[in-house]
């Protein structure tokens, strides 16, 4: 899984600064869109689960949670954060699970990291196969407005034993968002690592076409900021899909 090497290097920083923050902000939305419709003790798949903070929140509510991610380092943190959940190392574009899940969630624009429309369709096919009849699939994506608004400039985090520098950019002609990271960790002196994370901006038509090709006949789209009141959610959309 060479594609996920950068995510292994990102895991430590993601676990500390991003995983818990977005999980807590997304929970009220997930309550509204999917969790309130699931039976008590429902089986939930957290697709691209990262370092497991959302899985932790879901298990605390009594759900039986399986987390799936393609980064071994992310999953090491996830197992520490949420020992009550099951975690699987697999590729979101090509996985096979029993049709036993009442709900599937994928948050924090995880599916934008799939860079080809045919691979996005493949991921949706895998999700639909894993859903029980009547199951729900909810995911969010960065859309064009989000890349135009938020994917520019740089920021830094400076602590006593580590430094994070991130530079983001968006190439509208290619529909590609890029975030270049430089990390320094104080471990037997200062150690530097550099890597790039890349996302694809999908149009609403591309997403709905991929969902239809995967067999999802019913789905709704919500603007995160206007419809769901997610602070800082400009240009983010949530999709709700039903397996009838």
Describe the structure concisely for a colleague.
This protein is an alpha/beta fold and 244 residues long. The chain has helices at 5-17, 19-33, 53-60, 72-81, 117-130, 144-150, 204-213, and strands at residues 43-47, 64-69, 86-89, 101-106, 131-142, 153-158, 162-171, 176-186, 190-200, 218-223, 236-242. The chain starts with a helix and ends with a strand.
Cα-to-Cα separation, first versus last residue: 33 Å
CATH H-level superfamily title: Vaccinia Virus protein VP39
Task: From the alpha carbons, calculate the radius of gyration and give it in angstroms.
Answer: 17 Å
CATH level 1 class label: Alpha Beta
What is the number of independent domains? 1
Arithmetic mean of pLDDT: 96
User: Helical segment tally?
Assistant: 7
Q: How are the strands of the largest sheet arranged?
A: 3-2-1-4-5-11-10
CATH architecture: 3-Layer(aba) Sandwich
Helix content: 25-40%
What's the order of the H and E elements?
Answer: HHEHEHEEHEHEEEEHEE
Main pleated sheet: 7 strands, mixed
How would you describe what is shown here?
The strands form two sheets. A seven-stranded mixed β-sheet has the order 3-2-1-4-5-11-10, sandwiched between helices. It has a four-stranded antiparallel β-sheet with strand order 6-7-8-9. The longest helix is centred in the first third of the chain and has 15 residues, at 19-33. The chain is α/β, with parallel strands linked by helices. The protein has seven helices and eleven strands. The chain has one domain (2-145, 200-242): Vaccinia Virus protein VP39 (Rossmann fold). The protein has helices at residues 5-17, 19-33, 53-60, 72-81, 117-130, 144-150, 204-213, and strands at residues 43-47, 64-69, 86-89, 101-106, 131-142, 153-158, 162-171, 176-186, 190-200, 218-223, 236-242. The model has no long low-confidence stretch (mean pLDDT 96).
């Amino acid at each position: 899984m060479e594609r996920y090497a950068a995510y292994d290097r990102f895991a430590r920083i993601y676990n500390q600064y991003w995983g818990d923050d977005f999980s807590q902000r997304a929970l009220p939305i997930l309550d509204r869109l999917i969790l309130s419709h699931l039976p008590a003790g429902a089986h939930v798949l957290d697709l691209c689960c990262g370092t497991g903070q959302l899985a932790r929140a879901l298990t605390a509510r009594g759900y039986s949670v399986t987390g799936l991610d393609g980064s071994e380092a992310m999953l090491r943190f996830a197992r520490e954060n949420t020992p009550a959940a099951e975690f699987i190392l697999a590729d979101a574009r090509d996985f096979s699970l029993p049709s036993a899940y009442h709900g599937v969630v994928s948050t924090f624009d995880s599916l934008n990291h799939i860079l080809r429309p045919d691979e996005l369709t493949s991921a949706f096919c895998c999700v639909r196969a894993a859903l029980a009849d009547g199951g729900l699939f909810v995911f969010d994506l960065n859309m064009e407005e989000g890349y135009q608004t938020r994917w520019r400039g740089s920021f830094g985090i400076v602590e006593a034993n580590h430094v994070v520098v991130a530079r983001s950019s968006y190439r509208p002609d290619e529909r590609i968002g890029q975030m270049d990271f430089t990390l320094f960790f104080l471990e037997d002196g200062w150690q530097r690592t550099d890597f790039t994370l890349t996302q694809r901006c999908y149009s609403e038509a591309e997403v709905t076409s991929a969902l239809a090709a995967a067999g999802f006949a019913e789905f709704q789209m919500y603007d995160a900021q206007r419809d769901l009141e997610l602070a800082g959610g400009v240009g983010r959309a949530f999709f709700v899909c039903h397996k009838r």
